[in-house]
Amino acid sequence: VVIGWEKDCHVLTFSSSGSVSDHLVLHPQLATGNFIIKAVWLPGSQTELAIVTADFVKIYDLSVDALSPTFYFLLPSSKIRDVTFLFNEE
């Protein structure tokens, strides 16, 4: 489960009994006035997570590195409001 809230993003892993087995906190280094709009798992992946703000989209592969994003898309207009990701099996 991923929970994105204002400045941090929390990733919780649950055991089969329903208790939290791991808790990871991501700090995407947001500028003043910039907040997390959405945190979403990429379709078809259990380890790739996108964090969306008005200024950028950072994509993390948590199986590789939880500190540095794999991809970082910075938009000059600061107008991101929402995102949708598509998955193509080909």
From TrEMBL:
GO terms for biological process: ubiquitin-dependent protein catabolic process. GO terms for cellular component: centrosome; cytosol; membrane; nucleoplasm. InterPro entries: UBR4-like (IPR045189). GO terms for molecular function: ubiquitin-protein transferase activity. Coiled coil: none annotated. PANTHER family: E3 UBIQUITIN-PROTEIN LIGASE UBR4. This is Uncharacterized protein.
